[in-house]
């Protein structure tokens, strides 16, 4: 993939297996928070009075559904982003191959932002003003922050960006923005509770990434730690992993939270091993799920825990899981179908397909307004979510998963393995 704009028109190319086509018919079934009416907005109301073009927000979409995606096609996390995009594209291709949304195909236009918020803002301006997209998405909390004001003023949905910044869970302030990743405050509360259940006498340390995503996660963790009665003995940025590991070791930290971002997670583990620093427990943000990083870290990453909500395709226990079979049937050409980042990208698109179908079935038909309303009315059990977990959103609850399971990296098995039961956070 190049750094230039990439346009992908995902058209019908093959006949899908009957079992896979059957799975598509289940996409909208029981997927809204009101089982009695899948076209319901769940009580969420939007005012178009402040929109730059109210008529455009209410206009029915009858041809192509245009998605603008500002993504780090180059830069520090391009490799991980490519995995997510491959999963995303594969799910949308499957939807289009199955007939699209009431016959309308989904078209994704990519623009490179190199993981720089200012470039994401420039990309969004083009998407909104020139390309006239129906919805927009991006990768990273800093990018969401750069785009959100303009996108809300334009009343163009930003749906399921890879971000968890607590600021954008304020539905009144950002009614047209809905993030995909679990809200940082909910995720970090789960992490604090898990830490307290595993270690009695905690000396707590934090290593945070200096990006917008990392800072947002670290700030949320500090609030959750304070609410949970935990004092922070040491905190540091992970920009210089060796210096961070040395500082945390000197402080006697025995439980560590790493608010890392994809591409930086395993590097800190390697640095910790080099200075012989091995806390009793290391827990990382849920986006620290790229297996390639832990494989590179080797034994140093063994035991690192990540809160997860997605199934592990390589887990022998899910080999006969129909959802995983359907997922794998859709991703034959991706680089690493077993990587959680690929699965996450696929699920973001799966959630989008469900939302679009729900909006299309509403009384208003498919409009930007109905798409946003449908996005605020989800209780969707995607086939790649852990059993018992759904992705939920309501008029009062910004979106996110309903539960987590702790998973620890196993250097021996070269994958994440379950470290406890799924716990509801809803």
From TrEMBL:
Stored Pfam families: Peripla_BP_6
The family database entries (InterPro entries) matched by this protein are listed as: Leu-bd, Leu_Ile_Val-bd, Peripla_BP_I
The entry's keywords: Amino-acid transport, Signal, Transport
- Biological-process GO terms, alphabetical: amino acid transport
Superkingdom of origin organism: Bacteria
Q: Which residues form the signal peptide?
A: 1-28
The Leucine-binding protein domain sits at 64-420
Q: Can you tell me which family this protein belongs to?
A: Belongs to the leucine-binding protein family.
Q: What is this protein called?
A: ABC transporter substrate-binding protein
Upper lineage: Bacteria, Bacillati, Actinomycetota, Actinomycetes, Propionibacteriales
